[in-house]
Write a structure and sequence with these properties.
The protein is mainly beta. Strand 2 and strand 3 form a beta hairpin. The chain is globular and about 35 Å long. The chain starts with a strand and ends in a 6-residue tail after the last strand.
Length: about 70
């Protein structure tokens, strides 16, 4: 099931939350300022860290480590 949402450029849009714990694919449309969360199966590989690279993180030669939110 897809869960749509709206983003804001005001800096006050808050966190993106999910109702059920699990794994999700996050798709963001920066033109429409929307996002969709799609539930996906548990991965067969577990990663200890992930990062983001590209224009959203500065450029294609610099990656930014993401932090897990331990709730």
């Amino acid at each position: 099931m897809d869960s749509p949402g709206i983003l804001s450029t005001s800096g006050g849009s808050g966190n993106i939350t999910v109702a059920t714990a699990g794994y999700y694919k996050l798709t963001i449309n920066t033109t429409a300022l929307t996002y969709t969360l799609t539930s996906i199966p548990s991965p067969s590989t577990n990663y200890t860290s992930i990062s983001m690279i590209g224009t959203a993180s500065g450029d294609w030669s610099t990656d930014v480590d993401l932090q897990k939110n331990h709730i």
